[in-house]
Design a protein that fits this description.
By secondary structure, this protein is α+β, with helices and mostly antiparallel strands. It has two domains: about 60 residues, 434 Repressor (Amino-terminal Domain), CATH 1.10.260; about 130 residues, Umud Fragment, subunit A, CATH 2.10.109.10. The strands form two sheets. The protein has a seven-stranded antiparallel β-sheet. A two-stranded antiparallel sheet has the order 1-2. β7 and β8 form a beta hairpin. α2 packs across α3. InterPro entries: Lambda_DNA-bd_dom_sf (IPR010982), LexA-like (IPR039418), LexA/Signal_pep-like_sf (IPR036286), LexA_repressor (IPR050077), Peptidase_S24_S26A/B/C (IPR015927).
Length: about 220
């Protein structure tokens, strides 16, 4: 198969995960007409365009050239056929510091790959501005139910909408670092609530900026 056809078919599989070209376009801020032209064969997906799309989707370089085609069983042996494939890696996001997170909206456009502690591959469906944070302290460690223990890596999406009960990264105006808490909206009142009951909720008003919404928690063993 021609490399351009391979890229096209791999892109088609990625688009199909969103159901429609429009959904794919909205998620990655890409013109769905452009995607449609590629998939219909009216526009070639050349080297430069492929690399740009990979960067937009947070995929590794050459991913569109090398992703296995639909239905491929490459890499499976007879003793592995009963193994259920894991979820697809959706994108790579930078693991940054809590200070960087506090000013993320200001630095994101000029953020360089080397400024991240590391890049994390994640299955979370997040937008192009997503990042990761490593949890410090035990304020989000709950005795039961949802718990985000120290050392966990949380995937944050600044483009996601928050609601009452969302786990958010927020920054108070009088602090340099961001913080991870559960957002409580009670009529006109808003609070940042730790999951650990040993810590008190923080009342917020105009002194707080919501930076992003937590979409996934990952724990390295």
């Amino acid at each position: 198969m021609d490399i351009r056809d391979t890229r096209r078919e791999n892109l088609r599989q990625l688009v199909n995960e969103f159901g429609t070209k429009a959904g794919f376009g909205r998620h990655y801020n890409v013109d769905p007409t452009y995607i449609s032209q590629i998939l219909n064969g009216h526009r070639n997906l050349g080297e430069k365009a492929a690399r740009k799309l990979e960067a937009t989707m947070g995929l590794p370089k050459l991913a569109l050239d090398n992703l296995p085609e639909k239905g491929s069983s490459e890499g499976l042996s007879s003793g592995q056929v009963n193994v259920v494939p894991g979820p697809n890696i959706h994108r790579s996001v930078p693991l940054i510091s809590w200070i960087q997170a506090g000013g993320w909206s200001e630095i994101i456009d000029n953020f360089q790959p080397g400024e991240a502690e590391e890049w994390r591959e994640t299955t979370a469906r997040v937008g192009p501005h997503a990042f990761a944070l490593r949890v410090e302290g035990d304020s989000m460690t709950a005795p039961s139910g949802v718990s985000i223990p120290e050392g966990s890596v949380v995937i944050i999406d600044p483009d996601a909408a928050y609601i009452n009960g969302s786990i958010v990264v927020a920054k108070l105006v009088d602090t340099q670092e961001a913080t991870l808490k559960k957002l409580i909206i009670d009529g006109p009142n808003r609070y940042l609530k730790p999951l650990n009951p040993a810590y008190s909720p923080i009342a917020i008003n105009g002194n707080c900026r919501i930076i992003g919404v937590a979409k996934k928690v990952e724990l390295d063993l």
